[in-house]
Hints:
By secondary structure, this protein is an alpha/beta fold. It has helices spanning about 5-10, 45-60, 100-105, 150-160, 205-210, 220-230, 285-290, 295-310, 310-315, 365-380, and strands at about 20-25, 40-45, 60-65, 80, 85-90, 95, 115-120, 125, 130-135, 145, 170, 175-180, 185-190, 195, 200, 215, 235-240, 250-255, 260-265, 275-280, 315-325, 350. The chain has 10 helices and 22 strands.
Amino acid sequence: MERRDFLRQSAFAGLGLSLMPTLLQSCQKDDLTVNFQGKVLIIGAGSAGMMAAYTLQQFGIDFEIIEAGANFGGRVKKITNFVDFPVDLGAEWLHDDPETLGEMINDPNANGTVDMISYQPESIMSWDGNSLTQLNTGSQFYREYKFKNTTWHDFFEDFIVPSIASKMHLNEPVSSIEYNGSQVSVTTTNNTVFNGDRVIVTVPVPILQQELITFTPALPSATTNQINAIDFPPGIKVFLKFSNRFYPDICSVDTLVPGEKIYFDGAFKKGANDHMLTLFYVSESASELTELSDADIFTSVMTELDQMFDGKATQYYLDHVIQNWSNEAFIQGSHSHSGSGSIAPVQNVYFAGEAFTDGASSTVHGAGFSGRDIARAILQGN
Ligand SMILES: Cc1cc2nc3c(=O)[nH]c(=O)nc-3n(C[C@H](O)[C@H](O)[C@H](O)COP(=O)(O)OP(=O)(O)OC[C@H]3O[C@@H](n4cnc5c(N)ncnc54)[C@H](O)[C@@H]3O)c2cc1C
């Protein structure tokens, strides 16, 4: 199921609850014949870039990760100082079975468990702009999980980053890539130059669509047409801390596409004392918020919540955090809504990331597996 379909369903699905420690030793390391001995440059340290690096590292292949931002993670990001549990500012759900985490680690020697919450909201409402409707939870069931005491960022930090951190270069925005089929040279805005034999580009789609990285020779039009056809709408999350809980587990707001704007209890089953309501808004219409100043975003959200809940938002308000993904210089939006599927490599230039996968597009694990699979293809000499 695509993430977009999940959002449609999750806004309405009726779901129970359980806690699940996830075993991380579920997979054997790959058995793969390596036909490549060179060096791979990886642009971007999001899920796709980190998983590509992790895979190459497992096979002893040299690589460098070149990341524009000050931290790894990309759209996987957390804060720890807002409420009494760590908060995912971007990706939050695991849109698959918990065993997926073991598949990502892919190491029989890995130790540890991750506590996952089976995300099965019990109180579900819908807001049409005038009135709240209690939805019948019905009999639908969809497997969705969240991290209980940790985050997606912690998952990478704990299990993936330790073995690749020494080859990760932060604060190095790539501005140009020169390639000739056998060699590749990558230059950053700091004029740092990295040389290698292959490059895996994992930057978000808008970075490519706006040609913020120049390719020499220019990418073929078939490739740029495929990239430019991808829909990548604006996106934002707003986190509101309240002294009381006055909201249901999840409340969808009527938009053109159901499930693209939802308020949900961000503390759901986390065993926390603090109360946090989260707005998730990813859609073309999300520009009604993403283009506002932070002060106006806050006012707009509080006004809507006060209408929905008879002024209780203002009554119980304590604090808030706004994560406007459309304003992030190295992201510039949310996630693909029409993943292009995998893109054929151009000589020794490869593409990976959430938009460039034939699997679970628009997800963290889908992005990660696309990075892993491209790394495997390079390892096999493809
Ligand atoms: C609001 C929101 C909520 C979401 N919720 C979920 C969820 O609950 N579950 C889920 O599975 N998915 C969710 N997603 C989607 C998920 O976050 C993404 O699909 C996934 O994280 C993308 O990984 P990636 O590696 O493809 O890209 P990214 O994580 O964007 O990584 C790309 C990296 O490239 C870097 N970069 C950009 N330009 C340059 C440059 N010029 N030079 C070098 N580096 C550069 C960026 O800084 C970034 O670190 C959500 C996304 C958003 C925005």
